[in-house]
Amino acid sequence: MCGRYTLAKPLKDLESIFGPIHINLAYRPCHNIAPSQLSPVVINSSGYRELTTMKWGFVPSWAKNDKMKFINARSETAYEKPSFKGSLMKQRCLVPADGFLEWQGSGKQPYYIYLKNHAPFAFAGLWSTWNYREGKSLQTYTILTTEANKKLSPIHGRMPIILPIEQYNPWLASDSNINDVMKILTSPTSEDFDFHPVSKQINRVSESTDSKESLKPITL
């Protein structure tokens, strides 16, 4: 699964990877993004890419209330699930990140995982709009996961799907058919990761853990 991630690179770095893109948010770098927070996602908005914010914790459009929240969706079964099927077909997003956390073993030791070149990347995500009776709407997203690759499987059995840059357009395209979408989800995941253990203080969501210090390597 993926329960925390980071996005601390400058906005210009995101524009260079995800652009050309329309910026529709007040960007704030974060070293400890947690479920229920508003965070950046990239969507297809009438044929162009838009960087906007949504709440992490997917609420299906048909849910009776906004309490049903999914931070992750298993890619292998997403098309079979009523919660995700519609979004998998038409409302896919990129979730920008520059690292993520997984917890190892019964002791729940956190590890910080990132690309070897420390570049930003994108998780495969799904988004949804849920409407309140008062007319307001809530936009939410989830991160798709898959079986961990050989590099990361010693830490955790699951990992978020990281999309290569050449798959950004087909993933966002509203006219991609479901067979093409599923091929993207079953493509091999990158092994170009490094990781290190970090303090369990990162488990707390606070100003003190939203810093580079909280991601420093520790000795076990």
How much is the radius of gyration in Å? 17 Å
How much β-strand is present in the residues? 35-45%
CATH homologous group name = SOS response associated peptidase-like
C-alpha geometry: globular
CATH first level: Alpha Beta
Q: Which CATH-level-2 architecture? A: Alpha-Beta Complex
The structural class is mainly beta
How many beta-strand segments? 14
Number of helices: 4
Stretches where pLDDT falls below 50 for ≥5 residues?
Answer: none
Characterization of the model:
The protein is mainly beta and 220 residues long. It has one domain (4-99, 121-190): Alpha-Beta Complex (hypothetical protein yedk fold). It is 12% helix and 37% strand. It is built from 4 helices and 14 strands. It has helices at 11-18, 85-90, 168-172, 178-185; strands at residues 4-7, 21-23, 30-33, 38-45, 48-56, 72-74, 92-97, 99-104, 109-115, 121-131, 137-147, 158-160, 162-163, 193-197. The strands form 2 sheets. Strands 2, 4, 5, 6, 7, 10, 11, 12 and 13 form a 9-stranded mixed beta sheet that branches. A 5-stranded antiparallel beta sheet has the order 3-1-8-9-14, with no helix packed on it. The longest helix is centred in the N-terminal third of the chain and has 8 residues, at 11-18. The two termini are 23 Å apart.
